[in-house]
Predict the structure.
Amino acid sequence: MKRFFLLGTMIAAAVCTTQAGAQELTGTLKKIKDTGAITIGFRDSSVPFSYLDDNQKPVGFAMDICYKIVDAVKKELKNDKIEVKLNPVTSATRIPLIANGTVDLECGSTTNNADRQKQVAFTNTHFLTASRFVSKKAAKLDKIDDLKGKSVVSTSGTTNIKQLTEANAARNLGINVIPAKDHAEAFLMVETDRAVAFVMDDILLASLAAGARDPSAYVISKDAFSKAEPYGIMLRKDDAPFKKVVDAATAELYKSPEGAKIYDKWFTQKIPPKGLNLNVPMGAEQKKAFASPSDSPDPDAYAAN
């Protein structure tokens, strides 16, 4: 009789535990479990983070990271048949689509800052970008002070041209600041020697240089006009259980040898569709971001010692 009583108690406890587990599932994890699908928001031209290849398939550094997150969600929910849905987003739609539940993860090149954290959450930083300048190697320019008295271009209406103008005034450099209508026109001015340098986000400069007729003729400065700002994958705000799974997945990836391997795949090797090599090896700040994963929006949190 005692044996049957113990067995009954164990079965009842197991049932209660299962029911409690199901009841505790909330937010995005519950949505994914109930629908059997997770939706990834992708960008169509954010090279090399999230963009379309020749087959119109979303690929990129952030996409690879997001598929690792999907694997972690499948493991958490004990369901390897969860469907992955892909939904295009733009700069204007990415935050609303995360907030209204259309997209569960936004996988691209979105800057994690304090203002955006009022609307959405970010997982651990996957890239750091700063405002620098590209110039011809033959000009032998590397420091901001090397631009003194020269013509320098940046794209009109960007924070980059504002930073250039402010540095010009603060350091009394006498730079002739030239506004360009877009990035392509600005880079063309350097190609045709109408300007000695182009100030912009370093990763965008790298993609422009890689697409030049002679990529080896250009160099990106080490000196920067801004601190390194973090890019992060977005998810819904105030969804702690889902964020815990996403944070754990990205931290595990970044700290593993696979994190550096995925980085090299997109930043130091030929990438589709044109076989461009951005040639951007992992710097000290990026290595620190991977070694000690953080979702901080503060650029100072990523400064290398």
User: Anything to note?
Assistant: The two ends are 69 Å apart (CA to CA). The longest strand covers residues 37-42. Confidence is low (pLDDT under 50) at residues 11-22. The longest helix spans residues 2-24.
